[in-house]
């Protein structure tokens, strides 16, 4: 992992031990849980937005912003620990609306007799 130490040998023969990120287990736990703080807080909001604005629009915005933040994760993580935690919370906020949006799409698109099968299958 990027928090594990590894050895680097320089051109002059000097050996140094380094790691990409100096995150202890507590910081790693904060990073991992920060996504779910955002994800949990937008479940109800996602259903309401999907009913008001349409499931396709909400799903599209949620997936787009989440993908954008995922692409930007390496430079953000290299910049600041706190900025990275904030980005993970934002990623969770936008990912949290996708699950209710998918159900709103299925509710309008799928035949009544096949809804439970299609939702379970997808």
UniProtKB/TrEMBL annotation:
Name of the protein described by the UniProt record: Major facilitator superfamily (MFS) profile domain-containing protein
Stretches assigned to the Major facilitator superfamily (MFS) profile domain: 1-122
Gene3D superfamilies found in the cross-reference section: MFS general substrate transporter like domains (1.20.1250.20)
Domain of life from the UniProt record: Eukaryota
Cross-referenced SUPFAM superfamilies: MFS general substrate transporter
Membrane topology summary: Multi-pass membrane protein
Lineage, uppermost ranks: Eukaryota, Metazoa, Ecdysozoa, Arthropoda, Hexapoda
Protein localization: Membrane
GO biological process, one term: monoatomic anion transport
Keywords per UniProt: Membrane, Transmembrane, Transmembrane helix
Transmembrane annotation, as ranges: 30-51, 57-85
Main location, first listed in the record: membrane
GO cellular component labels: membrane
InterPro entries per the UniProt record, alphabetical: MFS, MFS_dom, MFS_Na/Anion_cotransporter, MFS_trans_sf
Annotated organism of origin: Homalodisca liturata
A single GO molecular function term of this UniProt record: transmembrane transporter activity
């Amino acid at each position: 992992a990027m928090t594990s130490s590894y050895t680097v040998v320089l051109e002059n023969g000097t050996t140094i031990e380094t790691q990409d990120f100096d995150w202890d287990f507590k910081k790693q736990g904060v990073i991992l849980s920060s996504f779910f703080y955002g994800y949990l807080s937008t479940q109800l909001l996602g259903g309401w937005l999907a009913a008001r604005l349409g499931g396709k629009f909400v799903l599209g915005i949620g997936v787009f912003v989440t993908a954008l933040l995922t692409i930007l994760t390496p430079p953000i993580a290299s910049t600041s620990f706190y900025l990275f935690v904030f980005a993970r919370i934002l990623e969770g906020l936008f990912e949290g609306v996708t699950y209710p949006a998918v159900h709103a799409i299925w509710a309008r698109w799928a035949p009544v007799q096949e809804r439970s099968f299609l939702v379970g299958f997808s």
